[in-house]
Amino acid sequence: MESPEKPKLSFAELENKVRNFKDFLISLPDEVFETFNNKKNHFEIDLEKKYPDARNYRIFHEFIGSSENIPTQIREDFPGEDSIELFIDNLTNQK
What we know:
Radius of gyration: 14 Å
Order of helices and strands: HHHH
């Protein structure tokens, strides 16, 4: 039996989740932080390779900690397996 699809977060909820994730990362012991942060960095690079317009996504900037201001920012997550929300959920469940 398939599990029901998780309800989509509002953009504000997703931004908050990303901020909480960054707080979670810095609270980790150094060796765990390094492993998780490396995974995060690889995910960022993969998103930019797959989505040439990744920097048009406001959530991408929040995720990478960028202060870049782009006037036409897309206010949604990436689709499917490329979802930042899904990445955060999967990584935090590994702890």
